[in-house]
User: Fold these one by one.
Assistant:
Number 1:
Amino acid sequence: MSNSNAIELHDVDKTFYTRHIFQKHEDTGRRRLYEKRAVHAVDRVNFTIERGEVFGLLGPNGAGKTTTVKMISGLVRPDAGKVFVDGLEVERKRLKVLRKIGVVLEGTRTCIWPLTPLENLSYFGNLRDVKGPILKQRARELLDFIGLKDKMNVQVRRLSRGQKQKLAVCIALITDPPVILLDEPTTGLDVQSSRAIRDKVIELTHERGKCALVTTHDMAVAQSLCDRIGIINHGALVACKPTDELLDVFSEQTFEFRVDRLPALDGLAAVPGVVGAEPCPEDDGPAFLLHLVQDEATRSAAMYDAMDWLRGAGCLLRSITRRQQTLENVFLRLTSEPRPARPDGE
Ligand SMILES: Nc1ncnc2c1ncn2[C@@H]1O[C@H](COP(=O)(O)OP(=O)(O)O)[C@@H](O)[C@H]1O
Ligand SMILES: [Mg+2]
């Protein structure tokens, strides 16, 4: 594997088999022991994450995000393909890989409830050979940044769900690991805490050269945190690009024109290169949206023609802005596609 990649997945595949014991058969109505049922959770996924990079894995529920995180941390064994962490093959060097990883798994009870946050951090630090003054200092710094300092001596079972989640993030970071895996870390957190985690991840990666894989449903977090984004649907990676590029590729080339009065938009829509024209809500004076073709040369000609047309119609042009595509729209578009048919008929 290449030197700058901290995580590599090559054609990783995982199918879970479940048995449904004594369920009613749909046709006969008889209860019986079902045969194995297969769920193809991760479908030949490839991606790499460089040192110093935040990679976001986005996908709807059941898409295969948690399974992917578990395969990187050695908790689930892939059926096929290889996973490398910091140059080590996970399958063969599990213990060494575990030492390099700090992981928060969604909905897992990571912390010990009868202990306090400080005691939890001491316990998990000691387990992983972080001791003495370094442990103390790191624990206090982590609790401080995440806003748990005033709860550091309160038993975990008395903390809220969000506070437990914050502690889980601190536990993952207590060993100062080079590879950070955060499975839905901001779910259930308030805006400040989610922002604190985002800032910390950016500091650890961009400034200190660690690598982070973050799965999230929160598009705002993904858009402002991740350098690159992979979108996973039905176990398959349907897009994987730098965040800006991903937004650009799916950008519809829509421009918002602010004018002194709304012209007859049918005439404008007839200009070559214009795909459509529609009025937009008038919260800041009259305005309309112009949808243009993707091709750059044709689009440029259409812009000139549209402006000539507006001048001809006697409109005063106040401003033109390009509508930025949001990650949420891109995500919805990509994940609304049906599962692609597989050649082997699965
Ligand atoms: N241990 C398991 N046994 C059986 N099926 C599983 C297991 N873990 C996950 N799955 C199934 O694999 C699919 C992907 O799950 P998961 O990776 O948890 O998705 P996500 O984290 O994207 O919501 C789901 O259909 C889920 O039901
Ligand atoms: Mg999950």
Number 2:
Amino acid sequence: MNPLNYDKILENLLVPLKESQIVAELKKISQNFTSKREKIGEYVESKEMVSAYSCFYLPTNMVKFKFLMDQLPESLRERIGELDFLDIGTGPGTYLLAHQNYFETDNKLFGVDSSSLMIDQAKKFLGDRAQFSFGLPPDFSKGTLFFGNSLNEMKLDKAIDMVSKTSPEIILLIEPGTKHSFALISEFRKSMIEKGYGVVFPCPAPKKNCPVSGEEWCHQVLRTVHEPEVERLSQLISLDRKIMPMIAHCYLKNHEGKNHRALFYRFLKETKHSFDWQVCLEKNEKLVTFEIPKRGMSKKEMKEFSSKNVGEAFDYVVEKELGPDKFRITLK
Ligand SMILES: C[S@@+](CC[C@H](N)C(=O)[O-])C[C@H]1O[C@@H](n2cnc3c(N)ncnc32)[C@H](O)[C@@H]1O
């Protein structure tokens, strides 16, 4: 099926639902995700909630995969298209569908989930295209392991253990863009580096200590528009999905080479002459400021520039050092 088509999602739900029922179930799910975290696992035990989850979170999460792929070097992207792909906590098959949609290759797709209802739902969407189980395949050293909004639902030790058991070549994750999630993923990142992985994205160097701490958290922000039916659900449950904070990472086994790129951490200000960004760099232990002159930019470029996504990686050339932590640069 074309996973982006809302009508096809509706046709393949575990139980048929009217819009009013979808909205009521989504309100319960969203409450459990935020204020009632002790009830976080409940939605996977009801056919109605699994179906409602599929109507809203499946299409809105799926699009984050393209964002992450677009940040990676082309050779690595191609490798992900070739390797077997194992989606941990696949839910309704969200990132299997995203992978299938993005690559359209015939590599093997595997979905793991502890909920039998989620697996039933994923099977309805993916048919024979993927294999599903409650447990891990024993050796996955020639594969990509993926966590999509699942690492923050399972204990950190469990996720690290899954990596140890499968020993994948590449690890990808897309998790909520929250402070809580960042704390967890920072621990995961440390552990992956200890295991010999290097960070390809978002960090400018594979094994650099993260300069973000305290009240800050490093995340990306994706701006997008969904199908009208999904936008309507978003309004009815008051959950914005046009601007989506997320934390996406990519790790590669034995990755030592420098990434060299800078990471757009935060927009600071726009003046008459320039844009100021806070960025994370390969060498500096602190976040630094980039002043990007408007000189030479067309109106269109300036407009595109001011709507850049936080968290994107980019290449640059330093024009002038303005201070220990401030540089005037041009984009490459
Ligand atoms: C928030 S959903 C994410 C679903 C999908 N990846 C997405 O992003 O839309 C989390 C999923 O992780 C599954 N899960 C939680 N703990 C798990 C574990 N220890 N092993 C396997 N799956 C788990 C849940 O059953 C649920 O389907």
